[in-house]
Each structure stands twice: as structure tokens, then as C-alpha cells.
Specification:
With 248 residues, the protein is an alpha/beta fold. The chain contains seven helices and twelve strands. The radius of gyration is 26 Å and the shape is globular.
């Protein structure tokens, strides 16, 4: 399986970037390292059963969303959006609701709603590819559990829930046996379209280099002009002061 990293905390090969140890805790919380290791665990599991006909895109942010998709799988048999859950405790998926068993001894809806997230990711990728004129039949959402200390009960769950030891079975029953929907070239084209989402938008890049709507070169020119004005005004003030003190 080919793997492409789009995380802002890793390079394309998956190595942690120097600033990750400072920025990742802010974004992911104190368990940031365990969360990233859980994603690695699931990715390694998938790689055991999917060959290079499949591409795994990690931490892509779909258009219009603020949260990323942990995994997007693109292959000849279709597309899957996967959310990796590194959590401990008792949970329940009731339809589209993600619920936790609380100290009140009852299940309550909690945030973030992993079911909602992964469904939004799947829909956003589907809409994006359809806008690009790709014949995508569906993007299947699923939640991959990556902690042996989690128990998730389901009641008509709106997404598939995959246990830590269930990766092989999920691939064997839900990915590999599906009738092909893409030929090799189409698979590559779809994957490349999604990979393009990892690249910084040119307009956004320009905005990040602006201050008060001005580009860096424009700011430099203004700074030089301001310095010249200060020198001129300073010189004029000096002449006025000298004439005032010395007289005609």
C-alpha cells in the first residue's frame, strides 16, 4: 500500500517535523503522541492486507471542513474515509450519535462526535471528487478503534465500527471483494486530486505573506518611503531649530 502523509506535523515520509513537539500538543492535546502512534498502528495493519494498488492518504483536510480525515483509502474497489479512535472507556454509537458512559451511569452524547466527523469527511471528499468530474459511486465511512481499553456498543450505527483486532476481517470483507470501480489510471488520478488538497492554496499562501492587505515587497517599499520621509522631516526640523536658535 502506498502511503502519503498530509499532516502538518509530519513530512511526506511520515517523519515528525521539528515544530511538531511544540504544536501537536496544542492541536491534539497531551496525548498527541499516543494519538499519532494509534494512527500508525492502524496504517501498519492496513498495509499488511492492501497492496500498492491502494493509496492511503493520511490527515487530509477535506474542502469546507476544519477537521482532517485521519485516513482516506483510494483503490480499484473504491474509497473509504476512516477515523481512528484512540480512547479508553465505554462508548455507544446510536445511529449518528457518539455517546460515552458517564459517572451518572448512563450514556450521554459527547463531543467530538466521531460518527459525525467521519461522515462529514466522506461526504466532503465525495462532493469534491464529483465536482472534479470523477465518477465516484460512494465514499464509505468507518471508525477504527486503536485502543484495547475501549468498548463500543452499537445500535443501528450509521458507520462501521472496526475493533483493534478486526482490520484484517474488515479489509477481507469490505474492501478487497468489492467489484472494481476504477481502472489503474483512474485510481491514480483520484488519489492525485485528493493529494492536491495537501498543497497550500496559492491565494492562501499569498494571504499569509500579507499584512494589512499588503505583500512583503510592498511593505518593504513603504518602510523605505517612510524612512525617507522621516529623514526629510528630521532635516527640515533641524534647519528650523538652527535658524530659531542662531537667528538670521
Amino acid at each position: 500500500m502506498q502511503i502519503v502523509h498530509c499532516s502538518k506535523f509530519r513530512d511526506r515520509e511520515g517523519n515528525l517535523l521539528p515544530e511538531a513537539r511544540k504544536e501537536a500538543p496544542k492541536a491534539l492535546g497531551p496525548d498527541w503522541k499516543a494519538i499519532m502512534e494509534a494512527q500508525d498502528f492502524v496504517a501498519q495493519g492496513l498495509a499488511q492486507y492492501l497492496d500498492d494498488a491502494y493509496v492511503l492518504l493520511r490527515n487530509v483536510t477535506p474542502p469546507g471542513l476544519t477537521h482532517d480525515a485521519d485516513f482516506i483509502i483510494v483503490g480499484p474497489t473504491g474509497l473509504w474515509a476512516l477515523e481512528v479512535a484512540y480512547l479508553k472507556g465505554l462508548f455507544k454509537v446510536d445511529g449518528v450519535n457518539w455517546m460515552s458512559f458517564t459517572n451518572k451511569l448512563e450514556f450521554e452524547t459527547v463531543e467530538p462526535n466521531l460518527v459525525g466527523h467521519v461522515r462529514e469527511n466522506a461526504q466532503a471528499i465525495f462532493d469534491f471528487l464529483r465536482e472534479k468530474k470523477f465518477s465516484v459511486p460512494w465514499v464509505n465511512p468507518a471508525i477504527m478503534l486503536a485502543n484495547s481499553q475501549i468498548d463500543v456498543r452499537t445500535e443501528e450505527a450509521a458507520v462501521a465500527i472496526i475493533r483493534p483486532d478486526g482490520i484484517e476481517q474488515y479489509v477481507a470483507e469490505n474492501i478487497l471483494p468489492v467489484e472494481p470501480v476504477f481502472n489503474p489510471d483512474e485510481t491514480i488520478n483520484v488519489a492525485e486530486a485528493i493529494i492536491a488538497l495537501c498543497e497550500p492554496d496559492e491565494e492562501e499562501a499569498k494571504k499569509t505573506n500579507r499584512f494589512l492587505g499588503l505583500t512583503r515587497p510592498q511593505l518593504v517599499v513603504l518602510a523605505i518611503m517612510a524612512l525617507i520621509d522621516i529623514c526629510v522631516l528630521g532635516g527640515f526640523a533641524f534647519l528650523v531649530a538652527r535658524d530659531t536658535l542662531l537667528g538670521p
